[in-house]
Design a protein that fits this description.
Oligomerizes as a right-handed, spiral filament on DNA at oriC. The protein is 49% helix and 8% strand. It has 20 helices and eight strands.
Length: 498
Amino acid sequence: MFKDGIESSGKTQFPGVAASASARGGSDSDARDAWDRVRRRLRAEVGEEVYSSWFPRIELDGINDGFVRLSVPTRFLKTWIQQHYIERLVALWQEEASADRVELIVRTAVMRTPGAAPMPVRAAITRVAPPVEAEPTPSTPASLTNPAEVANGSPLDPRLTFSTYHLGDSNRLAHAAALKVAHAPAGSGPVFNPLYLHAAVGLGKTHLLQAIAADGAGHGRRVVYLTAERFMYGFVAALKSQSSLAFKEQLRGIDTLVIDDLQFLQGKSVQQEFCHTLNALMDSGRQVVIAADRPPAELDALEERVRSRLAGGLVVEIAPLDDELKLEILNARIATLAQQHPGFSVPHDVLNFIARHCGQNGRDLDGALNRLLAHNQLTSRAITLEMAETAVRDLVRSSEPKRVRVDDILRVVAKHYNVSRADILSQRRTANVVKPRQIAMYLAKMLTLRSLPEIGRRFGGRDHTTVLHAVRKIDGLVGTDRVLADEVETLKRLVNDE
């Protein structure tokens, strides 16, 4: 059985297939079977690496009179597949289902409505629906018809500067490091290389990166800010137009490269080019700044050598906002809203309620304030604590689950059993090490969303069968050994309290 719904026991659901099965007498089952065959053949032809990078998120949306409609979640993915594999998809569909027309579209809520039939296409389209030009957006701008133009960087938000960044204990180190990098004069060499910031969504990573890009130019540095998606788009477009040399030279001729949302970097060839660019910049004394939603060691989609190079710099985590920082942010946002809506204000008890109960990041706070503003403006009701509790009740997270990391588990288990993290990750098989190692693997499986192979890699590069053995052993002992069961429950609480 393949992963990602590529092959199943017949229960895989493809939205829209039942309502738009082939008008040539086929059924939704026939459509699914044909789609399964196409995907298996495509996977065999392009190889596992290429397939897993670009094709798992394609879905079949319908077959109608020889016309196949496929959908993907992003415009970038659509453009890549159209440029490189659409003709092969058409050929496979023609062989497997006598279909001679294929349309690739970006999924939307409207398009996914159950029962929607495929959009009609003109009779002139006989082999393949021509690629539709994407509208200019920050991630796929029209200016990138010349791929080398990616070195101009992604657009910057003028509001995201150091002067508008709110400081607290959770982000003070990240802010200080970013400021040091931005204010380094041209020619002085890198300060921390790379500077790697990681945090959950809405905690200010992008704000700091854009502040570095905006401020660095004022100190004589040539800074390029890129999202990971724009980097991918530029590299793919450069390959397509045979201008990859210009792409590489422009990126490697800058003073500071700033990459945001690195977790979205996909594809072996793209990652290899990123690694080459990273090495070239750092080896020549250029500054690199990167942000992602997790530390380098947890970016399992990246190659080991990339993760290792990233971990060799200054890695700083931006922690969730504390209540004091939340109040500071709320007051600043309220002052901005009051300029646009004179008379808008929020009582202190309501602010405290929002800070305590409405999430852990700036976007949650914005959402709560927007609810209050809407209720106040549209109903003319005064903002009170009772009104606020009603307006933001679906935003309140009194028991928001904590994202547990393997590093947290290793730290807690090592401390509890008085062994080192290195001991747990080593090949030692003494009893005082094996037990903590197996318990840590068990907790990693129970408390995180990581797969067995991913857990094995985090535990010294072990095979997934080793992890499975540990999980089964501890699970069996917990049911019979009361002392061990209590130990495991204690460790769970300690990990969740980290």
